[in-house]
TrEMBL record:
It catalyses: L-threonyl-[protein] + ATP = O-phospho-L-threonyl-[protein] + ADP + H(+); L-arginyl-[protein] + NAD(+) = N(omega)-(ADP-D-ribosyl)-L-arginyl-[protein] + nicotinamide + H(+); L-seryl-[protein] + ATP = O-phospho-L-seryl-[protein] + ADP + H(+). This is NAD(P)(+)--arginine ADP-ribosyltransferase. GO terms for biological process: Wnt signaling pathway. It holds the Pfam family Actin.
Length: 815
């Protein structure tokens, strides 16, 4: 039947007929020869495309191949693509085919977003243009020169190459002083944005803007500059290509954003303005058109652009602020201008912040009360807008919306001319509101969610059938990463510090939709300070990303490698050596004998004198040169002065290497010499923690977990039924994930295997529950005391995953 056949005329006049044979046999996608077509299948085409790309990005492309369009809806096509490309690709490459559930409409959704852009009309190529220029019109269009009567003609004979490699493709926007074009780097195919300004313009701005961009380079949400120069009759600025503006996206979302989107945008927008202010400049043209979303992996990030009207407000060296002046002409647009700017007062930081407040209310309301006002002249129009703005109380402007917006505007209007805004206070206003509204900070903006609504409103999927049996499994993924992850990736130290104040370790170690943790990306990007902050919080070093790599594997920075290895060596939850001695049948007897003489130390009414002895003979002699020893001494002084042994436990869990050195001394000591004079400093410490009555309420019974890194010879010591005796303090956790995340196989321990010990604590005072005492409550710590006896119940070997070994240990009955 030909009922599904349809003919189409292409721009070059060729007529093609699309028949139903393609849709009756999905195997033809992989073997077009079934249809008499000697061309590559989709798997081969995909493989060939990736292999033509730069070798540095092939790994990412193989791991991020996304299916889209109605043809990709055949059941099992993702698995089939996975199989075929795996067979073609190098064996070292990890292949991942992503098939989002809504992919049938994803191409249409992308087209609808494109069509909603204000610049869409400038992207068309008409049939007439195609007939006149032929296929070359795709790359060689006639580009009208900005702000001049002359034109720049690009033809097949003469190409205007900027810096010898950037070719103009088409106009995509216009600014006050320059026009913006899509460009392409002909050497590598990378798309860029190109701003052209005629050298004949009466008020050139591009040179100043390029210098300011260079000052701001490296800032979060600031596009990178690739090139600036004068070429032919133009000042040319080549920079990162960005996505749609917030004004474009506002229109796409029917001119109303949800509160969630407004608050997520506010957080980033305040941060962008703060960065510019910290570089000694004010923007003076804050409006939705000058905030753009990024593209690709930066699609969740807000960028601030167009600095042609920016002004330096203070001296770099002296920090001297510009003087207060009046009778100034209004700079920038009127809709979002501050009241003081309308009054002719010199602008300062407060004006940018007030303008942002109007932008946020514009997003909330859909419009502002002074929009649409007209006058016989521009001056009269400005006066009407100014009058309406000043006569509209903040409470009326913000009526029906959370009070935080009125608080924001009142704060900004109340700032003095030279006063620095409290940016963190303003961000916190909206962050607290966000949490109060119980929203999820997932960077799922309204325009992203709209595609799902479009998908839901579309006709139901047709019932697909296939003559070839394919697997029905499907995979899905998301490219949306959290703001915290993004801040770690972009080296936004202040934002990361703020997030970490309220985040749990589970949140810090969360695998993002892209299969990576915050520590992975910070290590990969080489952000040492971010890595330090994450490790200080307790971020796991052993979690593997989708490439089966730990943060240590990801980084190229020697400093970061040292930081991670130091953390792995010092963690209380995993040991790089065997911590106990095998006592076979009499381990329980040995535990009794060693602890018995220590009871008097812990129960002595003047126990604090023993603590003084430990401080004088251990801290001030053996440990005097260790890092942060003063912190440990302070805890000991508190224990002595307040006669409270709890500070001994706090010292143990403090973020120093005290616990590590303490345990090294215990491990090296011959246990039969425990009460010898040279070891009394250690005996007193154990005795007080093991037997002081203040710790009775901390006694723990139940299951707890601890990790080890052991050699093949070490593991041979652990046989089922054997009994062991602990020699040191052993930190464990009631949460197995805490123990697991501290284990890793880095190059320094390549001959060791990860081992998870599962303890069953049965007797009182063998272990202490210090979750409410530890400096890191998220670690859910249980401290197993020295000279505790256990029987090995079971040893399990996991050949294909971590941990390699699992050892179940049950505490022996008391002697």
């Amino acid at each position: 039947t030909s009922s599904l056949e349809k003919s189409y005329e292409l721009p070059d006049g060729q007529v093609i007929t699309i028949g139903n044979e393609r849709f009756r046999c999905p195997e033809s996608l992989f073997q077009p020869s079934f249809l008499g077509m000697e061309v590559a299948g989709i798997h081969e085409t995909t493989f060939n495309s990736i292999m033509k790309c730069d070798i540095d990005i092939r790994k990412d492309l193989y791991a991020n191949t996304v299916l889209s369009g109605g043809t990709s809806m055949y059941p099992g096509i993702a698995d089939r693509m996975q199989k075929e490309i795996t067979a073609l690709a190098p064996s070292t490459m990890k292949i991942k085919i992503i098939a989002p559930p809504e992919r049938k409409y994803s191409v249409w959704i992308g087209g609808s977003i494109l069509a909603s852009l204000s610049t869409f009309q400038q992207m068309w190529i008409s049939k007439q243009e195609y007939d006149e220029a032929g296929p070359s019109i795709v790359h060689l269009m006639e580009v009208s020169a900005p702000n001049t009567d002359s034109s720049l003609h690009l033809s097949a004979k003469t190409e205007f190459l900027i810096d010898g490699k950037y070719r103009l493709v088409r106009k995509i926007g216009s600014g006050s002083f320059a026009d913006i074009y899509l460009g392409i780097n002909i050497t590598n195919g990378e798309e860029v944005a190109i701003k052209l300004e005629s050298v004949k313009t009466s008020h050139p701005q591009l040179s100043f803007e390029s210098k300011l961009y260079k000052i701001l380079q490296g800032g979060i949400g600031i596009p990178r500059i690739r090139y600036y120069a004068q070429e032919k009759d133009y000042n040319v600025l080549v920079m990162d290509l960005l996505g749609p503006s917030l004004e474009d996206l506002f229109n796409f979302c029917s001119r109303r954003f949800t509160m969630k989107t407004v608050l997520m945008l506010a957080d980033q927008m305040i941060g962008r303005i703060e960065f510019v202010h910290n570089k000694n400049f004010i923007h003076r043209d804050i409006k939705p058109d000058n905030f753009l979303m990024g593209i690709g992996r930066h699609c969740n990030k807000v960028f601030l652009i167009n600095f042609g009207l920016a002004k330096k407000y203070r001296d770099n060296r002296t920090q001297q602020h510009i003087p207060y002046r009046e009778d100034k002409n209004l700079t920038g647009g009127t809709r979002y201008a501050s009241i003081t700017a309308h009054l002719g007062i010199e602008q300062s930081r407060r004006d940018d912040m007030e303008s942002l407040g109007y932008v946020l209310m514009y997003f909330n309301r859909g419009s502002l009360p002074w929009q649409g006002l007209k006058g016989a002249t521009k001056k009269q129009e400005y006066e009407k807008i100014s009058e309406k703005k000043m006569s509209t109380p903040v409470e009326i402007l913000c009526k029906g919306f959370p009070a935080e917006f009125a608080m924001y505007l009142n704060y900004c209007r109340g700032l003095r001319f030279e006063e620095a805004p409290d940016y963190m206070y303003l961000r916190q206003l909206f962050r607290i509101l966000f949490r109060t509204l119980n929203r999820q900070y997932d960077c799922m903006f309204d325009w992203m969610q709209l595609k799902q609504k479009i998908s839901d409103a579309s006709p139901a999927k047709p019932n697909s059938s296939s003559s070839i049996s394919l697997s029905s499994k499907d995979t899905s993924d998301s490219s949306n990463t959290s703001p915290f992850y993004n801040a770690c990736r972009e080296n936004d130290i202040s934002t990361v510090e703020e997030y970490l104040k309220s985040m749990s370790l589970e949140d810090v170690d969360r695998l993002e939709p892209n299969g990576s943790t915050a520590l992975h990306v910070a290590a990969y990007e080489g952000h040492e300070k971010i890595v330090e902050l994450l490790l200080k919080k307790g971020a796991a070093c052993s979690i593997k990303n989708k490439y089966d790599a730990t943060p240590l594997d990801q980084t190229k920075s020697n400093k970061i490698k040292q930081l991670i290895r130091r953390r792995m060596n010092h963690t209380r939850f995993v040991s790089d050596s065997v911590e106990w001695i095998l006592k076979a049948d009499n381990a329980d007897y040995q535990a009794h004998e060693y602890l018995k003489p220590l009871e008097s130390y812990g129960k002595h009414p003047r126990f604090y004198e023993y603590i003084t002895y430990i401080k004088q003979n251990f801290l001030e002699k053996d440990l005097r040169d260790i890092d942060d020893i003063d912190m440990i001494k302070e805890y000991f002084d508190k224990a002595i002065n307040e006669k409270n042994p709890i500070y001994l436990l706090i010292a143990y869990t403090a973020e120093t290497n005290f616990y590590s050195i303490l345990n090294i001394h215990l491990a090296k000591m011959r246990v039969e010499n425990l009460t010898a004079e040279e070891n009394l400093k250690l005996a007193y410490y154990i005795g007080i923690i093991a037997r002081h009555p203040n710790f009775d309420t901390l006694s723990y019974t139940g299951v707890t977990y601890r990790g080890m890194m052991v050699t093949a010879d070490d593991i041979k010591q652990y046989t089922k039924g054997a009994r062991i005796l602990t020699k040191t303090f052993s930190s464990s956790s009631v949460e197995p994930n805490v123990a697991l995340r501290f284990m890793t196989n880095d190059s320094t321990t390549s001959n060791r295997s990860s081992t998870l010990c599962i303890y069953e604590i049965r007797n009182p005072r063998t272990a202490l529950d210090i979750r409410n005492i530890s400096m890191f409550p998220d670690e859910e710590e249980v401290l197993i005391l020295p000279y505790s006896a256990f029987k090995i119940k079971e040893i399990k070997t996991n050949y294909n995953r971590s941990p390699r070994y699992e050892i179940n240990l049950q505490e022996c009955d008391p002697w």
